[in-house]
């Protein structure tokens, strides 16, 4: 167990709370695993269909039951920069599998949308639900029951959580996640933000904005800011789904290719056919989930994971709550400053020591469970390394350095950037919400100001452009929750609110929508639950109501007489314009079935 008493107590509480559902889940995993190599249950006709397109050598291998078959679930498309490199991965994985005496087949593809493309567009209303669609799609691929292990190719926002839900649903199969890596560094993040705010003020045109954005997002690989995509990669490594050191190696490099080949071979080495059987559902347990949360806090990671981690944990019978997340935040120090929590990007983070250094520091501080299983074996200490390339093209791993190569980007457990984590849960008479404070200056973490109420982000933008918001205020943007419109990200609000804050006004945001991992310098209470469509208190706020957001104490309240406030009738909104177009009509049932944000906002688990 970790040395830190709070981490110990939260873990024990999580284990106890989860005991009935976790035991039932593990029994299902055990039953599925007891059947041995999955192809033994297939008829000759089933099996013939399963390898009809293979070469003769692979057919001969798959005809028996002692050769491992690795099922590849890929989120490849060449519109997403982060996923474009996956085009060549299946060929590399198949070659590596043959070298290891096994076979690899693409079992199926899953959809992968880019939130960067859909920001402020109708397609963003599908974004959150794409996570559950991805889990369902991966299940279709794996349902052919041809595989002894699975390799998951995914990076970005909803893709990795959806794939994890699938991996844990097929928990009897070992699961290795294989990343593509971040793009090389482009335009500095501070300059990108400066141009965005100038555009919001009308001081530069679309041509200048597009040039800046193109210099920021300029090539293959993950976007380099520390949003949900790169938080995903951190989580997969610290939870043990990645090979040690795999997360932040640029695509198209010899080390990236070596790690991909090694991952394929490792996946085949941990099947039930060998002596290191590591079923994903047994490997990932309450300690793994706690380790992921500790990493999320220590890096100031994405607020989306206050929902995704709950849904992922639920898939393994683990009943994680926002209270667990919030209590951990109080004791986990912030060790990384990566945009939007600072000017650096993930390439700078990796160069400063990256995952290996951070894990070594968190282990030193007694904040992580070292006694976990991973795809690499027993113990998280094996991840406190720096990956290198051997002269023969294989991967070498050296112990993580004792000192950060850039203390302004990555600090030590003894000298953290702040004593608590980057994420907090706010509670009060408006319900519960989440705030990311790692990028918010301490003097801006308490805002008390009148409400300005909007039912869409477009309405707020129009008010800003009309010059109606030059004052202290708390923007309330409601009817953006999962049941209302699918809980889109509201990043189009960041530039105008940032401009107003820079003009000296006290501003904050309260919404039942999302702001994702790129939540920036403006205090934003997001994921408000209950949401407005369900009659949550946010639907009772009127223009001019005094709201107090205190991220230091973890409170969010409307300062209105309780009897008067409770007597108000919740507002309603006409959402018909959000129910059609760009496929939104196909997701009506998803909106109707969606759970609360603090329960994972899932249509699969309620």
Automatic annotation (TrEMBL):
Pfam families hit by this protein: ILV_EDD_C, ILVD_EDD_N
Cofactor(s) required, per the database record: [4Fe-4S] cluster
Superkingdom classification of source: Bacteria
Record-linked PROSITE patterns: ILVD_EDD_1, ILVD_EDD_2
Enzyme class: lyase
Pathway: Carbohydrate metabolism; Entner-Doudoroff pathway
GO biological process: D-gluconate metabolic process; Entner-Doudoroff pathway through 6-phosphogluconate
Any GO CC annotation of this UniProt entry: cytosol
EC number: 4.2.1.12
Residue ranges constituting the Dihydroxy-acid/6-phosphogluconate dehydratase C-terminal domain according to the UniProt record: 408-601
Domain Dihydroxy-acid/6-phosphogluconate dehydratase N-terminal: 70-381
Gene3D superfamilies in UniProt: IlvD/EDD C-terminal domain-like
Binding-site list for [4Fe-4S] cluster: 156, 223
Entry function: Catalyzes the dehydration of 6-phospho-D-gluconate to 2-dehydro-3-deoxy-6-phospho-D-gluconate.
PANTHER family, sorted: D-XYLONATE DEHYDRATASE, PHOSPHOGLUCONATE DEHYDRATASE
Family of this protein: Belongs to the IlvD/Edd family.
The protein's name: Phosphogluconate dehydratase
Encoding gene (name): edd
């Amino acid at each position: 167990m970790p040395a830190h008493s709070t981490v110990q107590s939260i873990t024990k509480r999580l284990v106890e709370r989860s005991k009935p559902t976790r035991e039932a889940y593990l029994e299902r995993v055990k039953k599925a695993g007891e059947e041995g190599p999955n192809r033994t249950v297939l008829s000759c006709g089933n099996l013939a269909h399963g390898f009809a397109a293979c070469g003769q050598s692979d057919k001969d291998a798959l005809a028996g039951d002692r050769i491992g078959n690795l099922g590849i679930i890929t989120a490849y498309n060449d519109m997403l920069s982060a996923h474009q490199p996956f085009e060549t991965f299946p060929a590399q994985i198949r070659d590596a599998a043959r070298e290891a005496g096994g076979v690899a087949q693409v079992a199926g593809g899953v959809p992968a949308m880019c939130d960067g493309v859909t920001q402020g567009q109708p397609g963003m209303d599908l974004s959150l639900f794409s996570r559950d669609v991805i889990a369902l799609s991966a299940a279709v691929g794996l349902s052919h029951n041809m595989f002894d292990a699975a390799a998951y190719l995914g990076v970005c926002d909803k893709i990795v959580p959806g794939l994890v839900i699938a991996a844990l649903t097929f928990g009897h199969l070992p699961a290795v996640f294989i990343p593509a890596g971040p793009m090389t560094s482009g335009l500095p993040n501070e300059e990108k933000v400066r141009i965005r705010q100038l555009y919001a003020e009308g001081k530069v045109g679309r041509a200048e904005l597009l040039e800046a954005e193109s210099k920021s997002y300029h090539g293959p690989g993950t976007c380099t800011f520390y949003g949900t995509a790169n938080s995903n990669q951190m989580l997969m490594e610290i939870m043990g789904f990645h090979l040690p050191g795999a997360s932040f190696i640029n695509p198209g490099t010899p080390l990236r290719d070596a790690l991909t080949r090694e991952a394929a071979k490792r996946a085949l080495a941990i099947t039930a056919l060998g002596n290191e059987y590591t079923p994903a559902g047994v490997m990932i347990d309450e300690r793994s989930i706690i380790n992921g949360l500790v990493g999320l806090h220590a890096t100031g990671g994405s607020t989306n994971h206050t929902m995704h981690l709950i849904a992922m944990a639920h898939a393994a019978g683990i009943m994680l709550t926002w209270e667990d997340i919030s209590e951990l935040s109080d004791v986990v120090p912030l060790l990384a400053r990566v945009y939007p929590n600072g000017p650096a990007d993930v390439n700078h983070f990796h160069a400063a020591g990256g995952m290996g250094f951070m894990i070594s520091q968190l282990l030193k501080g007694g904040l992580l469970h070292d006694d976990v299983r991973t795809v690499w074996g027993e113990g998280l200490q094996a991840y406190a390394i720096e990956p290198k390339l051997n002269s023969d093209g294989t991967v070498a791993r050296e112990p993580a350095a004792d000192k950060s190569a850039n203390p302004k980007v990555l600090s030590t457990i003894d000298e953290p950037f702040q004593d608590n984590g980057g994420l907090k849960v706010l509670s009060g008479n408006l319900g519960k919400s989440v705030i990311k404070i790692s990028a918010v200056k301490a003097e801006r973490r308490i805002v008390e100001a009148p409400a300005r109420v909007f039912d869409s982000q477009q309405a707020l933008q129009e008010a800003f452009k009309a010059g109606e918001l030059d004052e202290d205020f708390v923007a309330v943007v409601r009817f953006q929750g999962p049941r209302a419109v699918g809980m889109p990200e509201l990043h189009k609000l960041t530039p105008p609110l940032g401009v107003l804050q820079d003009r000296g006004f006290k501003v904050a945001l309260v919404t039942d929508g999302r702001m994702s991992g790129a939540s920036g310098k403006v205090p934003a209470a997001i994921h408000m639950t209950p949401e407005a469509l369900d009659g949550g208190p946010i639907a009772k706020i009127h223009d001019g109501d005094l709201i107090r957001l205190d991220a230091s104490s973890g409170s969010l309240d409307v300062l209105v007489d309780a009897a008067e406030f409770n007597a108000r009738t919740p507002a309603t909104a006409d959402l018909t314009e959000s129910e059609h177009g760009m496929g939104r009509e196909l997701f009506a049932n998803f909106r109707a079935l969606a759970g609360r944000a603090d329960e994972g906002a899932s249509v699969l688990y309620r």
